Amino acid sequence: MLTDSPAFSGFAVSDVETARRFYTDVLGLRVEQNTEMGGLLTLHLGGDTNVLVYPRPNHEPASYTVLNFPVADVGAAVRELTGRGVRFERYPGMPQDEDGVMRGNGPDIAWFTDPAGNIFSVIARD
115 in helix, strand or coil? Predict the structure, then answer.
């Protein structure tokens, strides 16, 4: 029954308009806003992947990564996003370099948050 369903993921934000501006202006994503459905956002990602972003007034961000962006070069992605104003997270006990990239402990990865505090990553593509 669900085997061929075009499933998609979603997460909440506290302010849809702030999130939309961040996703489009800073991250450069293709974003569609459905005003007829309360301003829901659809992030159109590579590989024909869509992610639903919905408003939640009492939003509390998850303590885990909600969206991963596989990239060819994590360091280059970090430098580009830092230049656009993105601040990368640093976690105690994680072997991260000066740019916030964790290397040599699985795939290279660096984490950042959206304006609602949701955790995203850029992660080395296989």
Answer: coil
Distance separating alpha carbons of residues 25 and 114, to the nearest angstrom: 12
Output the pTM of the full model: 0.92
Exposed e or buried b for every residue in 66-94, given b needs 16+ CB within 10 A?
beebebeebbebbeebeeeebebeeeeee
Q: How far is CA 106 from CA 22, 65, 81, 95, 126, in A?
A: 29, 16, 22, 11, 11
Q: What is the pLDDT of residue 117?
A: 97
CATH of 9-124, one of 3.30.70.100, 1.50.40.10, 3.10.180.10, 3.90.79.10: 3.10.180.10
Per-residue model confidence (pLDDT) at position 2:
86
pLDDT digits (tens, 9 = 90+) for 64-104: 999 999 999 999 999 999 999 999 999 998 999 999 999 98
Q: Which helix (H) or strand (E) holds 119?
A: strand 119-124
